[in-house]
């Protein structure tokens, strides 16, 4: 199994459980591991044969703009479902960090793993 990576992707969204958080946008920082088989793309040198990390990053930025969840859990779960459906991703690991939410921590957040991990061949 191979992975396409997106690391430290910053997106701005309305997110938070407190009243003051409903009136501002805050930055989330995302890490993604996306399972795929890179061999067809490597053999053909064709972007259409792989997961386009630029297109996926753009979709994530749009998703963040479109939604205003309270919890990072909801953001992560709904984003994972959207990406899996729209890009045909069999398995992914997604970390959503909310920097600055807890002053004493560099970041807080969640990691989720969804789907069936393909066998290595
Ligand atoms: N497990 C979670 N805990 C908390 C969340 C969250 O989304 N998931 N959110 C908050 C507040 O919005 C906080 O980020 C404001 O600083 C508190 N705990």
UniProtKB/TrEMBL annotation:
Signal peptide: none
Pfam families in the cross-refs: FolB
GO BP field: folic acid biosynthetic process; tetrahydrofolate biosynthetic process
GO-annotated cellular components: cytoplasm
Pathway, per record: Cofactor biosynthesis; tetrahydrofolate biosynthesis; 2-amino-4-hydroxy-6-hydroxymethyl-7,8-dihydropteridine diphosphate from 7,8-dihydroneopterin triphosphate: step 3/4
InterPro entries in the record: Dihydroneopterin_aldolase, FolB_dom, GTP-CH-I_C/QueF
Enzyme class, broadest EC rank: lyase
Role of this protein: Catalyzes the conversion of 7,8-dihydroneopterin to 6-hydroxymethyl-7,8-dihydropterin.
Protein name: 7,8-dihydroneopterin aldolase
Record organism: Halomonas urumqiensis
Classification lineage: Bacteria, Pseudomonadati, Pseudomonadota, Gammaproteobacteria, Oceanospirillales
Gene: folB
């Amino acid at each position: 199994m191979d992975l396409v990576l997106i690391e430290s992707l910053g997106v701005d969204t309305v997110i938070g459980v407190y009243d003051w958080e409903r009136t501002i946008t805050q930055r989330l920082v995302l890490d993604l591991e996306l399972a795929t088989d890179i061999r067809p793309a490597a053999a053909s040198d064709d972007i259409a044969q792989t997961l386009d990390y630029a297109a996926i990053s753009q979709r994530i930025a749009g998703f963040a703009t479109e939604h205003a969840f309270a919890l990072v859990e909801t953001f992560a779960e709904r984003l994972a479902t959207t990406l899996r459906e729209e890009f045909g991703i069999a398995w992914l690991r997604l970390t959503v960090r909310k920097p600055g939410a807890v002053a004493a921590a560099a970041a807080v957040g969640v990691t989720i793993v969804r789907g069936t991990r393909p066998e290595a061949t």
